[in-house]
Design brief:
By secondary structure, the chain is an alpha+beta fold. It has five helices and six strands; from the N terminus they run αβββαββααβα. The structure holds iron/sulfur cluster (SF4) (2 copies).
């Protein structure tokens, strides 16, 4: 019941499509393969990144380790490479506390296979299919009903 309420609130109030399940296993993967979305775009330009480092504290903790078709790839220097633990865990930024969020998928990212979290669609494919079938059925009924009404009014006019 609680799960149903949670799903309802997420879908209808927060307009979310996914629900996060599982828990962090502390593998550190999400701190070593990072894309940065600034406003509406994923950072691709090193010069832009250097400029942003002056403006945002968290950016100065990131180091460029490569790039791909999506954009620049960073690692966070706050990650202890040996223990895979965050060295500033208590003060870590809000974005790290909220990870993973569904916006990750919107920017083309995915969860690491090692990640202990899973992002599950709130509404299953089966339910989406059922809903759209119901919608098509209702639309068909309405179309037939209005066509029948038009026919009847045409016949009345003729009389
Ligand atoms: S601040 Fe900590 S949790 Fe956030 S990316 Fe860096 S190492 Fe990971
Ligand atoms: S990838 Fe997932 S399991 Fe690994 S540290 Fe990040 S949140 Fe935790």
């Amino acid at each position: 019941m609680l799960d149903k309420i949670k799903r309802f609130i997420l879908a209808n109030i927060f307009r979310k499509n996914y629900i996060r399940t599982g828990k962090c296993k502390g593998c550190g993967e999400c701190c070593t393969h990072i894309y940065v979305k600034h406003f509406k775009h994923v950072l691709k330009d090193e010069k832009e990144f250097k400029r942003l480092q002056y403006l945002f504290k968290f950016y100065s903790d990131l180091e460029i380790i490569g790039h791909d078709e999506l954009g620049l790839i960073f690692k966070c220097t706050n990650l202890d490479e040996e223990t895979k633990k965050c060295k500033i865990h208590f003060w870590r930024p809000a974005i790290c506390r909220r990870y993973p969020q569904e916006e990750l998928f919107a920017m083309g990212g995915t969860l690491s296979d090692k990640c202990g979290y899973k992002m599950q669609p709130i509404v299953s494919f089966k339910d989406v299919l059922k809903k759209s079938q119901r919608k098509i059925f209702r639309t068909n009924i309405l179309t037939r009903w209005s066509a029948k009404n038009n026919l009847m009014s045409d016949e009345i006019k003729k009389k």
